[in-house]
Amino acid sequence: MDKFVDIDEERCDFCDKCVPICSQNVFDRYTLKARTYVRASRWFLCNGCGACVEVCDKKAIQVGESIPSFVEESICYFDDSGPQNTFKVCELVAERVKKGIKYVVVASVSGSTAVVMSEHLKGLDAKLIVFTIPPVWSDILPHPSIPTEVKQRLESVCVKIMENALPAIECGPEAIECQDSYTSSQLIPHVAIWELLHGIGGQGFPTAVEAVFTAVKEREVPVGAEVIGVGGTGYGADTAIVMRATPYEHMLSGPKENRFDVLEIIAVPKRKRRYW
Fold first, then answer.
1. Can you give the pTM of this predicted structure?
2. Which among 12, 34, 65 is the end of a domain?
3. Position 275 in a domain
4. Strand, helix or coil for residue 3
5. DSSP-derived secondary structure for 207-259
6. Structural domain count, the chain
7. pLDDT recorded at residue 275
8. What is the pLDDT of residues 7-23, one digit of tens each?
9. Are residues 137 and 256 in the same domain?
10. Domain boundary residue among 17, 41, 65?
11. Which of 43, 54, 59, 94 has a Cα at 20 to 30 A from 271?
12. How far apart are CA 124 and CA 271, in angstroms?
């Protein structure tokens, strides 16, 4: 059976003990920004003898069978973006909630998408949060944008509506810190982040991400939790992702376990549209 070897760089102190002890010449050294590292660049030559594991004081080396551990999840690719995908997105989100996700954040201007989602999540153990038009966007649509009767219907089933919440990206810092090495960082403008998210998934993707960031900012979702973000193109829903709840300001810096991380894509359109 084929073997693999891997080095946990967070544990490794790069003492080099593994380099000379390996009979298969698996390891080598490299230098980056005046710092020397060790890597298992010829991992495919590993015979699984374990000598490197035994000599490693930091327990940073793993050797094993080349059989990956994985969970197979399918991604729904819609041929086109738009509201016709809403019911399917809600159905897929409900199935994912049944597997353990406790938080769902839906971007919904009129509340219609939120109503459909609440029906699909009825009886399931998940908190539904709605990201809607904030006061700062009142030049686009009236605020509040969710009609009173729809709001009452949602709140009667314990749906949280973030009616006055400022969007985390749009109304956050104009630039945020990005860790670019172990010792340094640089500032990234928020418009670059927004456009990059557009390029990945069209209108729905950045909207879903923005909704989750805002829910974290409003303390509706705890930092570190797995949360489903739902967005759409124009109205309705065509995008759903599983994301780690992260404070927007620290999405690219700070503790690694709390950084921006899209864990799964549940649904996304193949034909994408941008806002501008």
1. 0.83
2. 65
3. no
4. strand
5. HHHHHHHHHHHTTSS-TT-EEEEEE-SSSS--EEEEEE---GGGTTSS-GGGS
6. 2
7. 67
8. 988 888 888 899 999 99
9. yes
10. 65
11. 94
12. 32
